[in-house]
Amino acid sequence: MVFPTIYTNIWDVLLAIPFVMILTQITKMIFHIKSFFVPTLSIVIGLLLSIFISHNYDLLAGIFMGFVYGYGAIGNYASMKTSYNAYRKRKSKKFAAYNHTMHP
Predict the structure, then answer these.
(1) pTM score of the predicted model
(2) Roughly what angle, to the nearest 10 degrees, separates helices 38-49 and 16-31?
(3) Cα four-point dihedral sign 38, 43, 48, 54
(4) What is the predicted pLDDT for the residue at 81?
(5) What angle do CA 88, 18, 53 make, to 5 degrees?
(6) Where are the transmembrane segments (predicted)?
(7) Domain hosting residue 93, numbered range
(8) Is residue 1 part of a domain?
């Protein structure tokens, strides 16, 4: 079995995954998609972007990189959401502790 040679460039590294994240969020806001469909939407957008734009010369490379874009966007979104929620939780605990010591 011969695996395809996949050439990556600056588009793959810095722009494709954020682009998939932005398109997913815009689509989610416009069409009010339920949250359990959003990861599937991200993968579909990644596949379409990769197959038709960034790797249109090789279908196997396009499919592979499309899944990389989609799952990369899902992972980045989950990581950012978890970090933001942890920050908010920590900040609210500090505020509650400060407020309790000032006004018993």
Answers:
(1) 0.80
(2) 130
(3) positive
(4) 93
(5) 165
(6) 6-24, 36-53, 59-80
(7) 10-102
(8) no
